[in-house]
């Protein structure tokens, strides 16, 4: 299994330094806006992506540029802003102790000039991965890949990467019991199954075939997970990155989403996600079973201005917990109003 074990950063975006070990199961980034949750997902995804396909030939530096899409493609803009020359370092480590390291400065313009060490050995074993961004894209899939291949467009490369994965046909042979169980749960949640016609996606249910552009965005995201399980992208040894699973999702479906993520972890999929949502976090806390491997990684901005992290494996030990603190504050205000305490 090519599990992502550790990430070390120096002077990258909001991070002065970071040394974070990960769970082989579910890793949850939480924190206030601007604390780098999405940046960490993109860094780790880029490291996985360069183990296969065209990205393997392009290299880690180019994948970082394409995933982050800095202004004019200047990779040096990812370096933490300081009033001096600064060097950034990214080091990702697999479970087998292989490391992939990239180094560049705020003066580096071209991604080809990023110094990358360890990519040949790192890429010997492909890591199948998928990145689900906040914005759902399958409704916009028709013509998107052709456009992205010919034109400079203002979309990070995670979008065409995901659409390519969604277009993969289903695996041959019988469906394993654990995959069938997951697919059944998802079909119940979306009340149907997904079919494709050319570059168009449809939800097939009792009403017929509904094109994705007519569906709620939350349902489209669940349908995407169904596709990735059906076509074998999300199998043992693969890695799923999901930026804010709660986005555009009815709270009544949060429990099902969490159960699906936990079940993926149980069959050997490593999961990284970010969230701002109290309900989602509590669903993980309440649905966790013996043997489930969950790590909460709390990102927070220090007085000096840079972002740091604390991690733990129990919900009650998250510190700081910006999500829970905000919810508690709302509850206190509601309680004060209900018992007639005047506002200060």
Oligomer: single chain
Q: Kindly report the CATH topology of the largest domain.
A: Rossmann fold
Shape: globular
Low-pLDDT runs of 5+ residues are none
SS content category: alpha/beta
In total, the number of domains comes to 2
Report the CATH architecture of the largest domain.
3-Layer(aba) Sandwich
Which sequence of strands runs across the widest sheet?
7-11-12-3-13-14
Q: N-to-C terminal Cα separation, in Å?
A: 56 Å
SS element count, helices: 11
Query: What is the gyration radius calculated from CA atoms?
Result: 21 Å
In CATH terms, the superfamily of the largest domain is: P-loop containing nucleotide triphosphate hydrolases
What string gives the helices and strands in order?
EEEHHHEEEHEHHHEEEHEHEHEEH
Q: Kindly state the percentage of residues in helix.
A: 25-40%
The beta-strand count equals 14
Task: Put the structure in a nutshell.
The chain is an alpha/beta fold and 344 residues long.
Report what the structure shows:
- With 344 residues, this protein is an alpha/beta fold.
- It has 2 domains: 238 residues, P-loop containing nucleotide triphosphate hydrolases (Rossmann fold, 3-Layer(aba) Sandwich); 97 residues, no CATH class.
- The protein contains 11 helices and 14 strands.
- The strands form 3 sheets. It has a 6-stranded mixed sheet, with helices on both faces.
- Strand 9 and strand 10 form a beta hairpin.
- It is globular.
- It starts with a strand and ends in a 6-residue tail after the last helix.
- The model has no long low-confidence stretch (mean pLDDT 92).
């Amino acid at each position: 299994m090519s599990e992502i074990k550790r990430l070390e950063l120096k002077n990258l975006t909001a991070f002065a330094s970071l040394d974070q070990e990960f769970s082989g199961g579910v890793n949850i980034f939480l924190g206030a806006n601007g604390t780098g949750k999405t940046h960490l997902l993109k860094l780790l995804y880029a490291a996985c992506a360069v183990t296969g396909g065209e990205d393997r030939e392009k290299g880690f530096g180019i994948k970082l540029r394409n995933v982050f899409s800095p202004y004019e493609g200047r990779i040096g803009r990812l370096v933490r802003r300081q009033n001096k020359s600064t060097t950034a370092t990214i080091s990702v480590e697999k479970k087998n102790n292989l490391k992939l390291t990239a180094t560049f400065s705020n003066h580096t313009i071209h991604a080809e000039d990023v110094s990358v060490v360890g990519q040949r050995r790192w890429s010997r074993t492909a890591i199948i991965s998928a990145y689900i961004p906040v914005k759902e894209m399958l409704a916009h899939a028709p013509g998107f890949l052709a456009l992205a291949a010919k034109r400079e467009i203002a979309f990070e490369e995670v979008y065409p990467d995901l659409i390519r994965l969604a277009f993969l046909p289903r695996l041959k042979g019988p469906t394993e019991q654990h995959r069938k169980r997951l697919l059944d749960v998802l079909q119940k949640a979306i009340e149907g199954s997904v079919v494709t016609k050319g570059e168009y996606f449809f939800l097939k249910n009792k009403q017929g075939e509904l094109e994705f552009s007519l569906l709620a965005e939350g349902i489209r995201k669940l349908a995407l997970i169904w596709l990735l399980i059906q076509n074998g992208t999300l199998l043992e040894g693969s890695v799923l990155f999901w930026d804010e699973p709660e986005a555009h999702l009815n709270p009544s479906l949060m429990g099902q989403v969490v159960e699906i993520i936990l079940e993926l972890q149980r069959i050997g999929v490593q999961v990284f996600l970010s969230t701002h949502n109290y309900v989602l976090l509590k669903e993980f806390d309440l649905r966790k079973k013996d043997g489930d491997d969950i790590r909460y990684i709390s990102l927070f901005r220090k007085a000096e201005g840079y972002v740091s992290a604390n991690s733990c494996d129990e919900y009650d030990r998250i510190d700081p917990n910006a999500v829970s603190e905000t919810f508690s504050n709302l509850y206190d205000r509601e309680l004060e109003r209900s018992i007639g305490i005047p506002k200060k």
